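tl;dr need the bound structure. longer version: we got a ligand (magnesium ion) that a collaborator sent over and nobodys looked at where it sits. i said id run it. heres the input, straight from their email, havent touched it
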Amino acid sequence: MRLILLGPPGSGKGTQAQRLIHRYGIVQLSTGEMLRAAVAAQTPVGLKAKDIMASGGLVPDDVVIGIISDRLDQPDAANGFILDGFPRTVPQAEALDALLKKKRLKLDAVIELRVNESALLERVERRAAETRARGEEVRVDDTAEVLIKRLASYRAMTEPLIHYYSERRKLLTVDGMMTIEHVTHEIGRILAAIGASEPQTPKKAARPAARAASRKASKAAKKAPGAARKAKKAASKASSKAPKKGGARKAAKKAPRKAVPSSRKWSAVRGKKAAKKAAKKAKKR
Ligand code: AP5
Ligand code: MG
């Protein structure tokens, strides 16, 4: 599974990414965390990023694109990943598209965490207080003053990505004002609905059609044993044509909410038709 978490500072990207990586066994790729580590280690990237981050601005695109490009090449990203805080600009999103295309990988979804701006300051201040209480170093950008600048950067540079991914039918919006637990539950629900997480979901959707075709075939076989083979063949054909994981996922991607039910209908119609045809032939004989 390959996901992007999109949202303003304090919307819960890091919190949800942590929960999702445990649930789905994938890695979290947080450019903010990587940059903070680079600042602490005083690497050339860290030295470049330090003041920009402290002031609430965005680190240049080429720097973060380079970091992500290297990170995606590492073996632990092969199973899937959650991008937290990347991309943050349209050029970063375009660069990510190119990187994934080169690797022949597809993004499953972009999850936007929508939170009222008035709640963000309280969250960030609470995080700062909790960090301080643990005796750890508080993020230099976790102040009311810098948050205003981070929010301005988000509005100007990152919000256009909502349109970018919505146009590409990748965007799924979650109400980030719910409790942490509810947000995780909602993300899990929508990932299952698009077939991105639980592989059994699309398979289950396909099976009733196959079973219906098989039942019809058995009935036809009882009425006219000679036609049994043909009817069974038709039923098995219907079963093999019922969309499996990849097909349902593709359909779900085209129309995230409606695709699974409509593909289910499609396979059911085909399955029933095939069995009906065979039964009719059997009756005639
Ligand atoms: P980054 O580290 O990515 O920070 P951010 O986007 O500003 O977001 P935060 O980490 O502050 O918040 P979050 O959404 O992760 O929320 P969290 O889960 O912690 O980036 C830092 C800087 O690095 C940038 O400003 C920029 O300079 C630079 N940078 C990074 N990536 C870049 C890029 N791609 N391009 C250019 N520059 C880049 O939650 C916050 C608090 O709220 C926590 O206390 C949590 O417990 C609480 N909380 C979470 N969810 C809920 C909830 N549902 N209800 C109540 N409380 C909640
Ligand atoms: Mg974070």
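gonna send this back to them w/ a short note. Residues 259-284 form the longest helix (26 residues).
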